[in-house]
């Protein structure tokens, strides 16, 4: 089973994939506009053919962000899509790169590596909540 997770932001879309139980961060999609980003993600979905797309979704306190993510995902022609709470995923991703220098951490934010590590955390949460998915 192949699972793909996305951490959708205004500037970048972090991606992570789980294949045979191994979760790996992927190259993020850098957003120039919504159309370009959705087409790039659609192409990636068609290329990798995951069984499920897992999307990080903030809680109700972030209604505008939730609506933006739901709208963006609505542009995709893919199913099934599962939404997983993304609270603190970016903070946990930041902890994963705490050993890097300040400059390297800034670069990780800028190039999207941090977003893809957040997508890894979203994917870990999904796998932990549905352990039979890997059988």
UniProtKB/TrEMBL annotation:
<keyword id="KW-0963">Cytoplasm</keyword>
<protein>
    <recommendedName>
        <fullName>Putative pre-16S rRNA nuclease</fullName>
        <ecNumber>3.1.-.-</ecNumber>
    </recommendedName>
</protein>
<dbReference type="GO" id="GO:0005829">
    <property type="term" value="C:cytosol"/>
</dbReference>
<dbReference type="GO" id="GO:0000967">
    <property type="term" value="P:rRNA 5'-end processing"/>
</dbReference>
<dbReference type="GO" id="GO:0016788">
    <property type="term" value="F:hydrolase activity, acting on ester bonds"/>
</dbReference>
<feature type="domain" description="YqgF/RNase H-like">
    <location>
        <begin position="1"/>
        <end position="93"/>
    </location>
</feature>
<comment type="function">
    <text>Could be a nuclease involved in processing of the 5'-end of pre-16S rRNA.</text>
</comment>
<comment type="similarity">
    <text>Belongs to the YqgF HJR family.</text>
</comment>
<dbReference type="Pfam" id="PF03652">
    <property type="entry name" value="RuvX"/>
</dbReference>
<dbReference type="GO" id="GO:0004518">
    <property type="term" value="F:nuclease activity"/>
</dbReference>
<dbReference type="InterPro" id="IPR012337">
    <property type="entry name" value="RNaseH-like_sf"/>
</dbReference>
<dbReference type="InterPro" id="IPR006641">
    <property type="entry name" value="YqgF/RNaseH-like_dom"/>
</dbReference>
<dbReference type="InterPro" id="IPR037027">
    <property type="entry name" value="YqgF/RNaseH-like_dom_sf"/>
</dbReference>
<dbReference type="InterPro" id="IPR005227">
    <property type="entry name" value="YqgF"/>
</dbReference>
<keyword id="KW-0378">Hydrolase</keyword>
<keyword id="KW-0540">Nuclease</keyword>
<keyword id="KW-0690">Ribosome biogenesis</keyword>
